[in-house]
Amino acid sequence: LRSARELILDAVLYKPDVVFVVSGTLIPEEVYIELLRVRHELDRPFALAMYYTESPYMDEMQEIYFKYSDIVFTNDKYSVKRFDPKGSRYVEYLPHSFDPKVHRPGNENDPNSDKYKSDVFFGGTVFKERFDMVESINWDNVNLRLHGNWDEWVNENNPASLKLQKYLINNEVYTSNAEYAKYYRNAKIALNVHRTRADIEGETNPLDNYNDAYSIGPRIYEAAACGTFIITDYRKEAEDIFGDTIEFF
User: Fold this and answer.
1) CA 214 to mean position of chain CA atoms
2) Which of 12, 51, 99, 215 is the most buried (most CB within 10 A)?
3) CB 229 within 8 A of CB 188
């Protein structure tokens, strides 16, 4: 809420041409209403642009803020038509990407490089479908490394999950892109699993439009840029970009 208030103050103070909001679903709707009221009082009104980063999973929520936006970018190409079926608004697909200075092939002469080596590496937020898949596989004789909030899922409350404990890298949910790139560069396989629903716990039903989702997330771009072989569930964009150099399950 504090950052939402500062958004309005900054718009008045700096008089920008464009206010660009990334995600924005945590900002109360009242803030957008006030932001647009304020801009009409300025000598040079700004445009409000938003980047919807949670498509297609949270399209229904993101759609609430659509009416306040002059320009909308979305991270899934499928969602462009959902937000603007008549093509009368400025809605563009803005794909995920990578930083070539960070995500690149080749291992550095790092004395601690062994800690990054793995047969299979998965890093990211643990949604239920991701946990269920990883937990169901027999990882004997496989050097699996898991990074993210796995400790929330692998604990004594779920005794069957404890077999994954030895594969957890640490309890740090977040780490730098540079650190993640080292894990990708030293992995034989990068595993990717797209989630199928909006909530982490898996209490809601899979999305009706999940099979229509076209685009891939940043994990595939970053791993590929590091030269790592990727195994992922199917997305049309992955096939369009990588052809048969990526493996689908």
Assistant:
1) 14
2) 215
3) yes
Residue in this structure with the two tokens 């900054």, named with its chain if needed: 10
Q: In what order do the strands lie in the sheet with 118-123?
A: 144-147, 118-123, 187-192, 229-232, 247-248
Does the CA dihedral 67-71-75-79 come out positive or negative?
positive
Pick from 16, 59, 44: nearest CA to 197:
59
DSSP track, 166-195: GGB--S-S---HHHHHHHHHTEEEEEE---
CA distance 245 to 228: 11
* Residue type at position 46: F
> 66: which DSSP letter?
G
Residues contacting residue 137 through CB under 8 Å, at least 6 positions apart? none
Residues forming beta bridges with residue 232, ordered by sequence position: 192, 248
d(C-alpha 224, C-alpha 232), whole Å: 12
Q: How far is CA 245 from CA 211, 229, 240, in A?
A: 22, 8, 11
Instruction: Report helix, strand or coil for 82.
Output: helix
| Residues in Cβ contact with 201 at an 8 Å cutoff, skipping those fewer than 6 apart | 128
Tens of pLDDT, residue by residue over 43-102, are: 889 999 999 998 888 888 888 888 899 999 999 999 998 898 888 889 999 999 999 999
pTM: 0.86
Neighbouring C-beta atoms of residue 197, cutoff 10 Å: 17
At 5, the pLDDT band (50, 70, 90 cuts) reads confident
Specify the pairing of strand 118-123 against strand 90-93. Answer: unpaired
